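#lab-general

N.A. 3:47 PM
ok so I finally got the sequence cleaned up, no stray characters, all 140 residues accounted for. can someone with queue access submit it? mine expired

B.Y. 3:52 PM
send it over

N.A. 3:53 PM
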Amino acid sequence: MSTTPYRFIRSRIADNPTANGLLGGRVYQDEAPQGVATPYAVMQRVASVDQRTMANASGGGLYFESIDIDICADDRATAQTAADAIRAAVVAGLTTVGSARVELSTITGIGIDIAEPALDGGDMSLYRRQIQARIIWRQP
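B.Y. 4:20 PM
back already:
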């Protein structure tokens, strides 16, 4: 399958004017570059499991993917607004990905505030919201 749920989520964020407008295209895989402007999002694939059984091992199958999206911003309100926009973009776009059907089993928002020291020893406040997407998709 050329489009996975991971790519699907990235494309939904990029195609959504609100989410992309807030993030300015700053959606990264696994980690953000040091010193990047905020707000930004970091997507990380937590699990990707092929659930095919003997009965359908020759073609198609059921797959599970778990993706965490961390949204970081300079203030709590911006982090929450960007998280809400991403959540709306992903949920609104749930349809077919190529020839596979994507179903969102859960998408949750967990509010986490982090105060991290800057590398130079100064104070830096960084607010983070996390979206956990658990996706099941069927490949014909």
